[in-house]
Specification:
The complex is a heterodimer of chains A (about 625) and B (about 270). With about 625 residues, chain A is α+β, with helices and mostly antiparallel strands. Among the domains of chain A are: about 240 residues, 3-Layer(bba) Sandwich (FAD/NAD(P)-binding domain); about 120 residues, Alpha-Beta Plaits. Helix content of chain A is about 30%, strand content about 20%. In chain A, strands 1, 2, 9, 10, 11, 14, 20 and 21 form an eight-stranded mixed beta sheet that branches. In chain A, strand 24 and strand 25 form a beta hairpin. In chain A, helix 14 packs across helix 15. Chain A is globular, with a radius of gyration of 24 Å. Chain B has about 270 residues and is of the alpha/beta class. Helices cover about 30% and strands about 25% of the residues of chain B. Chain B is built from six helices and 13 strands. Chain B has a nine-stranded mixed beta sheet, with helices on both faces. In chain B, strands 2-5 form a two-stranded antiparallel ribbon. A two-stranded antiparallel sheet of chain B has the order 3-4. In chain B, about 40% of the residues are buried. Chains A and B meet through helix 5, strand 9 and helix 16 of A and helix 2 and helix 5 of B.
Chain lengths: ~625, ~270
């Protein structure tokens, strides 16, 4: 029995444009900036005359799902080499919440609680570190003497992606050459030619229907999504974007490629106490706590704001992945808490990261389309960076498009490959992706092996990685490590959950020894309060549910229901029939449910479909 | 009936559901991180805009202008959403954001902007706006604009207008007790400060957006700066309405018990 939305066959309005873009993030920002800067040097250049509306400038449109360009979710540190190349005179002070990187630290966090899932090897290592406590360990943290070269971000920028997107968008819109439309989800690509997986062709974008019910059937004020037909479709809608997913479903991935590694990045934006000693531009990379596999970060913005967060990976090997609870324990680690205590939570957010890198790279081009950014496999998991790589792929496509326009050629797969792919293959993005290709494989066989593998890959520029088989994401969920403390303490947790009415995953953590969170209403607040207080989640009425449980029988029989525990917005809860229930109004569009389903209908994909949807997190302080 | 001439005054405000914190800076009170906070069209005025657009659509040949005062960059950002909903011509005035500038100065700037609209027949003008604001609403700005434009017929808390063939119209204004007062006006010019009206927020329509953008971006580039008098007002103190949130899971309480507890909780807030 399937509850997928109904397919509505209906006459749709159609619009012809030259270039249509799906998603506005750093990649599309780089693409549109490159075009706009070239156009602004000579607007009368016939190269910029529209092919679909002769006599007019090129018609370049970009559709973004989020209700505001500032609603992007991520505090990042980036080397910003590509961004600075686009803006040579860039002054970080122009961008709210931006700061130049001044100092970096790498901290190994010991477990002051004793609840984390540490292997025997790691416990021995922790014990040995503890022997030299006075000299090496402060606040239960061991600071590496230096930041490894592959990790450093010297000369880079700390950014709020929300503010950066808005800054880029404002400049683009002020130029008048391109139009960026927020609050406009794109449901799917319009495929060109015959329904044939062997032919990769795209003819534009279909916008999401409005005025429909939860299942997508026409309701009050029905307005079919418009077909935006384009000579070139630029796909930059990120790792869980609807257009990219539909392309992968139709065309598959290149031989040997698969998207099996993911992480959920979740963070707080905190206003630091007035007497803080943390300086803007400070960057911390952490590992070891709250679980060894969960990496963390702390980035200090101007005006006493700090982004603090964690990455919960698909290879955590545990269905209990309650990221929000883990994040609360993370900020209470003594090394961080000494700076954060007394602060105020300003905002909160979460986002899926596609961490397969080169392994997950899709077909980058086809007739009439090209893919850029994170969804194109540009994220470098060795250096832990993706924003500048995404921006750079956008710039590369922009340069390629200019070359094709100047030559008067069509946007065919051949021409896009010859221009865009060629640039990308010869660039630092590709070199970095190759070096990082197997850098994290070791983590699939344990934390220590992962660290060693990452170190080897980093020190040898990827020439000496640890190779291992990587299971599909659904199978990674069940790989509970034998050293997990007292198993899952499932019975105790179930009793606790029943008694207190709290989610089972949350109770599981308590049953495993994690202390209760001492809520203070300012910095340590409940998950529900964070949804209201920090991030503010909204969803325009009239759109269909974008999270679909494909086979509810699988959901009902699922023991783990990790989709519920991992849901960043508590938008997925246990329904009365035993299957997960989805509330669109609470979804922050992090996409974690997509890869946190252990029951795959085909061994690779999950039982959850993540489609185009409106709304999400509304916060500029992200 | 003749085509309508409708001007909607609509400010932009920091998204009211964000974390808002008053601060006092060198230029007086404001909100912490105000330029970082997402802005939205003032919700009350947005209702006025949607009602105006619906009226204009029923009367072919009508013109609809949106007069908005705010920082140009923020106006541009907000217009990317608003412009997809209804067709209008933007008259932007570059000025400060927030609700703290003096209402008299703001009214003077907006009235001046309206007077400068080419082709506007002021004798036929219906001046729309919100009767309240999601920022620090002075509650008088729209009246002051009307007075400066010499419009004597003013209605506030409007939920409905019904135009008659002879140019007169009937207005429903909110009054005490959840009732409406019915008034009949001989015709334009008139000021209508809208409550929520009866219309749902229009869907985003890409074609409407593209049509609007052809005039919005040039208008933003030409926007004049409003010289508001920064010294005409001084604030003794500024605070947000008390906000309190308590979350708890209850599985065994009846709806009546929950309602009773809510009533008691609300009562404590007096």
């Amino acid at each position: 029995m399937s509850f997928a939305p109904q397919s509505v066959e209906i006459d749709r309005q159609t619009m012809e444009v030259d270039i249509a873009c799906a998603g506005f993030g750093p990649a599309t920002g780089g693409f549109l900036t490159t075009l706009t800067q070239a156009w602004s040097r000579n607007p009368a250049d016939p190269v910029f005359e529209s092919r679909v509306a002769p006599g007019m400038p090129l018609q370049v449109l970009c559709y973004e799902r989020a209700d505001d360009l500032a609603a992007g979710v991520s505090g990042v540190v980036t080397r910003a080499e590509g961004i600075r190349a686009s803006f040579p005179a860039l002054d970080p002070a122009q961008i709210p919440m931006a700061a130049a990187v001044k100092q970096e630290r790498v901290l190994y966090l010991l477990d002051p609680i004793g609840a984390s899932r540490r292997s025997r090897t790691l416990r021995i290592a922790d014990f040995l570190l503890g022997l030299g406590k006075e000299r090496w360990v402060k606040d239960h943290a061991f600071e590496l003497p230096w930041a490894p070269a592959f990790l450093h971000k010297r000369g880079g920028l700390i950014l709020s992606i929300g503010q950066f997107n808005q800054w880029v968008g404002a400049q683009l819109m002020a130029g008048g050459f391109v139009q960026i439309w927020p609050g406009t989800p794109v449901s799917a690509p319009i495929f060109a030619g015959v329904a044939n997986a062997q032919y990769r062709g795209v003819a534009g974008l279909r916008l999401a229907d409005q005025g429909v019910d939860k299942l997508g059937a026409p309701a009050d004020g029905f307005m079919p999504g418009m077909d935006v037909r384009a000579e070139l479709t630029v796909v930059g809608d990120g790792p869980v974007g609807s257009v990219g997913q539909r392309l992968d479903e139709r065309f598959g991935l290149p031989a040997g490629h698969a998207r099996r590694e993911w992480a959920l990045g979740m963070k707080f934006v905190i206003e630091l106490p007035e007497d803080t000693t943390l300086e803007p531009g400070t960057v911390w990379h952490t590992f070891g706590f709250p679980e060894p596999e969960i990496f963390g970060f702390l980035y200090v913005h101007p005006d006493r704001f700090v982004s603090v967060g964690i990455f919960v990976p698909s290879w955590l090997g545990d269905p209990t992945r309650t990221a929000y609870r883990y994040l609360q324990h993370f900020i209470q680690h003594p090394a961080l808490w000494r700076h954060l205590q007394g602060g105020v939570l300003r905002s909160w957010g979460a986002k899926s990261l596609e961490e397969s890198g080169k392994h997950g790279e899709p077909f980058l081009t086809g007739d009439g389309y090209a893919r850029i950014g994170e969804g194109s496999g540009s994220t470098n998991m060795l250096t832990g960076s993706g924003v500048d790589e995404a921006w750079t792929t956008g710039v590369q496509l922009g340069e390629a498009v200019l070359e094709i326009l100047r030559a008067g050629l069509p946007f065919s797969q051949e021409n896009l490959s010859r221009t865009y792919e060629k640039r990308r293959r010869a660039s630092s993005v590709e070199r970095g992706a190759r070096q990082a290709r197997n850098a994290r494989n070791g983590f699939h066989r344990g934390f220590m092996r992962g660290l060693i593998g990452m170190g080897l890959a980093g020190l040898t520029s990827g020439r000496l990685p640890l190779r291992t088989h990587i299971s599909p994401a659904p199978r990674q969920i069940r790989a509970v490590r034998p050293h997990s403390k007292a198993g899952l303490a499932l019975r105790d947790a179930a009793a606790l959950a029943l008694d207190s009415g709290r989610p089972l995953h949350d109770a599981l953590m308590s049953a495993r020894g994690w202390p209760e969170i001492p809520f203070d209403g300012r910095l340590l607040v409940t998950h529900q309060d964070a949804l209201l207080m920090g991030g503010k989640v909204q969803a325009m009425p009239g759109y269909a549910d974008h999270v679909i449980f494909l086979d509810r029988r699988r959901c009902i029989s699922c023991e783990e229901k990790t989709c519920i525990g991992m849901c960043s917005g508590q938008a997925i809860t246990l329904g009365p029939d035993g299957a997960p229930a989805f509330e669109r109004e609470k979804c922050v569009h992090c996409g974690a449910c997509l890869w946190n389903c252990p029951h795959s209908p085909d061994g690779e994909r999950s039982n959850i479909e993540f489609q185009a949807g409106a709304g999400g997190l509304h916060s500029g302080e992200n | 009936m003749n085509p309508l001439q409708i001007v909607v005054c609509a400010g932009i405000v920091p998204d009211p559901l964000q974390t808002l914190e008053p601060t006092t800076g060198p230029n007086g009170p404001g909100l912490k991180n105000e330029m970082v906070l997402p802005a939205v069209l003032d919700p009350w005025a947005a209702c006025a805009l949607y009602e105006a657009a619906a009226l204009a659509a029923k009367h072919p040949g009508s013109k609809l202008w949106l007069v908005a005062l705010g920082p140009k960059a923020k106006l541009q950002q907000v217009m990317m959403t608003v412009a997809q909903k209804v067709v209008f011509e933007l008259i932007p005035v570059d000025g400060p954001i927030g609700g703290f500038p003096d209402a008299h100065s703001t009214a003077a700037a907006l009235a001046s902007a309206i007077e400068s609209i080419a082709g506007l027949d002021r004798a036929a003008l219906l001046l729309f706006g919100g009767w309240e604001s999601a920022s620090r609403g002075a509650g008088v700005t729209l009246q002051l604009i009307g007075e400066r434009l010499g419009i004597a017929d003013q209605f506030f808390g409007v939920d409905q207008i019904e135009l008659r063939p002879d140019g007169s119209f009937e207005v429903l204004e909110r009054v005490e007790g959840g009732k409406h007062q019915v008034s009949v006006c001989a015709g334009a010019p008139a000021v209508l400060g809208w409550a929520t009206g009866n219309l749902a927020e229009p869907r985003n329509n890409p074609q409407v957006g593209m049509a609007n953008m052809r005039t919005i971006m040039p208008a933003l580039q030409r926007a004049k700066t409003a010289a508001l008098d920064a010294n005409s007002l001084s604030y003794v103190s500024v605070s947000l309405p008390k906000q309190q949130r308590t979350t708890r899971v209850e599985k065994n309480m009846s709806a009546d018990e929950i309602a009773a507890e809510l009533v008691e909780w609300i009562g404590k807030d007096n």
